[in-house]
Amino acid sequence: MAAQTQTGQADIVVIGAGIIGLACALRLQHDGLKVALVDRAGAGHGASFGNAGHIATEQIYPLASPQVVRGALSTLMDAEGALRIRPQYILHILPWLARFLWASRPSAFSRGIVALSTLQSTAAADLNALLAGANAAQLLRMDGHLVIVERESSLVSARRETEELAKYGVHADWLDADQVRQIAPDIATPIQGAYLYRGTGHVEDPLAVCQALFAALLKAGGQFSCSQIERVTHSAQQFTAHGAGGVRITAKRVLLAAGAWSAPIAAQFGYTVPLDTERGYHLTLPRAQPAFRIPVASYERKVIMTPMSCGLRMTGTVEFGGLDLPPDERRFDLLHKHMHALLPDADKAGVSTWMGFRPSLPDHLPVIGKAPDGREIYFAFGHQHLGVTLAGVTARLISELLRSDVTPRTLEAFRISRF
Fold first, then answer.
1. 255 neighbors 333 (Cβ within 8 angstroms)
2. What is the DSSP string of 53-113?
3. What is the pLDDT of residues 129-170, one digit of tens each?
4. What is d(CA 296, CA 332) in angstroms, rounded to the nearest whole number?
5. Among 125, 204, 332, 410, which residue has the fewest nearby CB atoms (within 10 Å)?
6. Residue 1: pLDDT above 50?
7. 357, 387 contact by CB (below 8 A)
8. DSSP 131-181
């Protein structure tokens, strides 16, 4: 790991080197600030490593919705359910679930759509600009993605979903089975139809994106320390981040972007946030070469397959189980089952599995902004499964906030004090 720093002075210390922390750190370094980046595991090795790589600009609906609540209550404990809570974790997550239910009421859900739509409106352009600034624009492909419908009984609800999204400017083109076969001839399941989203895309490899941002940060003069920050002290208008292994970095400002590990440090600053994790699972088939070159999702199975430079990756489902429980092997079995049904002839040699922690707040909106008490503390965490998608826009908003020191109305819905 290059540019290791044990002690030092910076203009801002950024805690967390996932996709959000990396994006913000690079943007701020390019703004002329001296940035010190700190992470417990190295650049891009958390949730940013194993995600679907999907640029999900179509996702403007918070998970906390009346529809999800109605559909999930009967399947939360189902080992094969698309939305599941580990039985060992149910008591711990009850307060979070109460907030989730409150956030799913129609008025709050509508406000959440507006808030996410605001971020998504420039997300693709901001991400492209971010990657171009890191000489990594070639890793981004904005060619859309396909959602197949396997059952005739699903067609009505699927069409209704696309019609509702169109009201918010999210458009998709309906395809018949023959048109789908032209894009993805190797899909083996019966296909009743599909819809092709415009304005979405994917990255060639999420880890490669993180590595490119990290390399660009170091080239621009940024510092890095591989250490878990244990506490942050504040005195004389200066912050000191104290990390394991003797790391000690002082700065005028601090940005907390530690993903699923953000809550304890936020609490040190005096802010209690109901942060939990959507545990994500994936399979990666390094030798698979599907005919389709855009992500393909299944409407019924709630999985998505993304062709990447590192192979074919399948991700899907949402599991709540905190940071300490081991992976549930049945979730990997479920992904294998879906992969076999969709692509039975895919080369599965060398298949790898992964489970990671996506930071999730009950209203499904991230925290982006400045501490309301006036201290030079900034927040950028809680992006759930939209970290890659929203990295560019989050970095731009944080940059604008530091330069103007005036919180724009755009960020009102993402303030940390909303809890």
1. no
2. -EE-TT--S-SS-HHHHHHHTTTTT-TT-SEEE-GGGHHHHHHHHHHHHHHTSHHHHHHHH
3. 999 999 999 999 999 999 999 999 999 999 999 999 999 999
4. 19
5. 125
6. no
7. no
8. HHHTT-GGGEE---EEEEE--GGGHHHHHHHHHHHHTTT--EEEE-HHHHH
